[in-house]
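Ticket reopened. Same input as before:
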Amino acid sequence: MKVGLICNPIAGVGIFLGTKGTDNVQLAWEKISEGLDPPVYKIINRTLCQLKSLKRPIQFFTTFNINKVLQSCNFSLPFEVCYSMPNHSTSQNTIEAVQIFVEKKVDLIIFFGGDGTASDVAKTAPYIPIIGIPSGVKIFSAGFLHTPDDLLQILQNWPLPVKKELLVDLDEKLYEKGKIVPKYTVEATLPVNPRIQLGKISYGESDELVYERIAERINEDKMLSNKSILVGAGSTFYKIFEFLNLEKTLLGIDYYVNGELRIKDLDPSKFDNLEIDELWVTPIGRQGHLIGRGNRQISPEILKKIGLKNLKVFSTPEKSKDLEKLYIDTQDSEVDLLFKGFVQVIIGYYESVLKKVE
Amino acid sequence: MIHKRTQAKWEEPLILNKGGAGRRAYIPESVNLPKETIPDEWIRKSPLELPQVSELELVRHVVRLSQMIHGVDVGPYPLGSCTMKYNPKINERIARFPGFADMHPQAPEQSIQGTLEVFFWLQETLKKLTGFDAVTIQPPGGASGEFTGVLVIKAYHEARNDTKRDTIIIPDSAHGTNPASAAMAGFKVIEIPSTEDGYVDLEALKSVLTENIAGFMITNPNTLGLFEPNIQEICKMVHDVGGLNYLDGANFNGIVGVIKPAKMGFDVMHMNLHKTFTGPHGGGGPGSGPVAVSEKLRKYLPVPIAAKKDQTFYWDFSNKKTSIGKVHGYNGNFGIALRALLYILRNGGPGLRKTCETAVLNANYLLHHVRQINGLTIPKGKNVPCKHEFVASASKLLKETGVSTNDIAKAMLDYGVHSPTVYFPLIIKEALMIEPTESESKQSLDLIADVFKEITKLAYSDPDSVKNSPHLTSTGRLDEVTLAKKPVLSQLIEKKDIFS
Amino acid sequence: MSPNSKNYFQSYLGIGPEEEAEMLNSIGYNSTIDLFSDVPQNLIERTPINIDGPYSEFELNSIFKKISQKNFNDHLSFLGGGVRDLYIPAFLEELMRRGEIYTAYTSYQPEIAQGMLQLIYEYESQVAELTGMDVISASLYDWATALGESARMMMRIMKRRSILVANPISPERLEVLRTYTEHSGFNIVLVDGEGTINQNDILIIIEEDSRKDKKEREIAGVYFEIPTFHGVLPSQVDEFIDEIHKYDVLVTVGIDLISLGILRTPAEYNADFMIGEGQILGSGVSNGGPLLGILGTKYNRKWIQNFPGRLVGKTTELGSDLPGYCITLSTREQHIRREKATSNICSNQTLMAVNAGIFLAGLGPKGIRDLASGLVDRAHYLAKELNKLEGIRSPVFEPFLFDFVVDFGSISHEKLEEQCISQGILPGLKIEGTSCLRLISVSDKHRKEELDYFVNVISEVSKL
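Engineering reply: fixed in the latest deploy. New output:
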């Protein structure tokens, strides 16, 4: 089996730029030259170390020396660097690398990145199955693993059935202005497996009553009182908070103390000093991610402090209906474990739905 | 090739647009008394454009319309969860005896001994069939029974000053009425997921069992037609945290006469007399939803309850103070209760047992044949017999041919077979919920299976013909979308031209 | 006798014993009880449950004929108070015996149920015509539960938690209203009146409530009946309702459907919601059920979203101009909206609605006027004749319509009932909490001779 492995070195840097993606390449590289360790390295390390128990021969074609990464877990894999990423690489470099993979007739391309990287890979190799390892800021497209820890299973069970699906990329500028307009980019060949996420769907719940009823419950049960709460991103909260007569940013994480908005669109560097009693999140439509998609700002350290007990989940009934399970992908397997179990998703004034978190 | 049937197709105008001035089908009894006037300010000013038709015109109109309705008396009706069994004709005759049909509910007890005897007899019989200690016949429908039962649970906790219990647990396979009834009674509802096999997930249940739990509401056999194997353990887990167990008896036909629900560990249940005990479904009702409870809940039931002292029957109001109150203006749907009693007595214990076993046999026989049909799958209950119904999925067919569950449902109508319940329970994609009942013959079951076979086969060869069905019913598919946008709900709305 | 020798139930089973064995065999089972192998065996009854039966059809027929004859249905009855024992024409009874109609269920597949759907639409349309209300629910259980639903709906729409109810109201309706509301934290406030609506006090209470901060307001709606439970036609209802509306409070009226053959409609005096008992439209009183809860309103998109019960609408066939009927706006209902459902109602009283529709079509405009005025004439004649008797005051409250309260003076309830029943009369409804007041209701089954007979009996009882 031949696998192409490519990494977008600036994936995820957007978090540190306070943007909702890393579309601005130049700014990202500046941040790295200022001394930021590319966040993707940590994910590469976590993802590839599990391949220690890989029981089948795989020939890797890569854009970097993977054994350098694997040193930390004391094993090595056979690989060939078939394209050298220059410093300050752009999406053009991604495309060129994938062209080489195509020539090498790889069976599968694995990429580290977000929605932007996914589009670049797919448009160059529309007929080769691709799998994304979630490393970017925006990860709304189909084709990403729910969590990097699943890669071993996928490779072990290869080949998987595949299907054609349009990838999604949200326009970062529009997105920041609060418009979740999915723009369908290119058609990709994606493996079908429960460990691989489906594309986000925006549930434009036309029925305002849904949000009003959830808001009524928050009021009635005094959920905001006497607590310091981080409230995650998403249109679900945006609309619920309208009915609570409280300001809420659409894409930012906001901080409320005793029912009052204290900090809007929180910067991660300030997280450490904050007192946090609860974290409120809403799953991403059809994917079911509670943490790790659209709210990467929340660091594993903070999540560790919060724990499953102090996580409150809200959803519209429609969105909830399509989700069999919920996912946590915090980039830290230890923290992921802390959040496994059952969680109640509040979907109305009266009703909650119990869901399994994986 | 199986025979199709063509339904009658009368282009019958609305009765309001028929007839002519001066025609009168029914002329009420006149009386030779002085004419009285009513206060001027009360005299009707609006026009009153009711139909003016002769008796024959009206009779023909209704008979023609009736020919454009599919009922159990017309053909197979495997509508899951609705138990569309045969409605015995003797019940219809007896329910129309003047002593039953013309009796006012509030007449003094001595003048309604017959009525009280029927209520009492049915109460006693339902107690024996369920294993519970007390029964009210008052709830006029299944959902009303649920509302009553949930209020009884509330009253029980409140009487013990156990006021923190504000939540009812419901499995995700439940009937939609369960959460609606619990919410109507002021409870919060937690819906818990089912396991891969379609049963209650004990781990999930355990994770929500706290001192806030007022009760657990479940249908058993569940809406997949499967008997919950751990039901006794489940009931015990709920009891252990102080909650009560509620059985939705919609699927009582799958166990009636074979299993007494109280023995499973339930504290309260409602029955749907129009399902299990042949109250005619009447195009949507009337139903009847008696509630049975264990001894400790007796005093919370609605009053009055029929009682007997020596040889005299009377209304027992003794629990009026502790009761949750009335849920019907009088004593519920007596007419349906009477029919249920007649059906039960016709069967006796042996007959009900046979009924249940036959319903289960018919379902398993049909399941056996449906399982073999290409395009349909049976996602749950792999290694167990189903009870009175089962759920198939057309996901595979949809993926392979583009023909959906809805299309199958429509295509079936051309064979004179009513469709199963579709898209329910919500946990099965493209669900077809099939309940043949004990009334259907082997030929009828074979026909239903053959219809599925022929339609799915056609889906692979000529999917469009399925998607465009039905072809032989009195109308093709209707424009439901425009209607939802511009809901013409009466001729008055048409006349006023509200939507233009 | 062994169970097998009395297998009368075989009539209702689709398969015979030989077929049963064959079918079991074909699916790999030996006996039907093996189909319960998945059930914990301690739950299975080893023998049939010991209840009465099996009975033959003949036995049932004779047993229940005897039971039915224990009821005094042939007595001359003046009982009403919500339901009324009116004559039912033969064609109606005959039509309602059609199995196609009564053995169908909810019209989930409209293509195969056009007849049922059209009958329901005709019911909705005729009740709309009669009441002036555009939208009629098809259907609720009875008047009392329609009141419960209507109260909840008013509170949902206004987001307030109290309803004012004009007393007199029937104790049964009031009790159901309380069950529907008070367990979930809503309040019912009774405003007493003397036989009629205490408009003054109601307006004072609403005015006081309206002075509160908008979020603190409690009163969502007012409920009263026309005529009242004591039979009275209130005056200046238009002005009263206008006043209530000025304070942004809703109005539900309870009406007698047959009275609308001669009376002004709820639409004319601008009520927001209308409820009533549909049994009087051609069904038997049947010991109190099945009845028919009627609920109507004027078209208002927001209100319709909160409206309980099924709705059938008129549309066209896809790809043609032919009319067709189907259930619509079902997103309001519990199977889709679950907890957000406007009501938990599922099975309802459709058959009674169909019956009422055919009854109204049979009556026509002239028939319902004749029926209504015939009841007025009987009631007023009877009230006057009773008033002529020594020691009896009749009616106690005026102006009245079909029903009226009689003060029987020194004749106690017990004595009156005992004497009347022995003379073949059921003497009206006892008014709770009184020693001698009864609500007398007339029927089209009452001829002049029967009214005179009642007066004579009372005259004799009063002399005892």
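The two ends of chain B are 49 Å apart (CA to CA). The CA atoms of residues 376 and 394 of chain B lie 5 Å apart. Please confirm and we'll close it.
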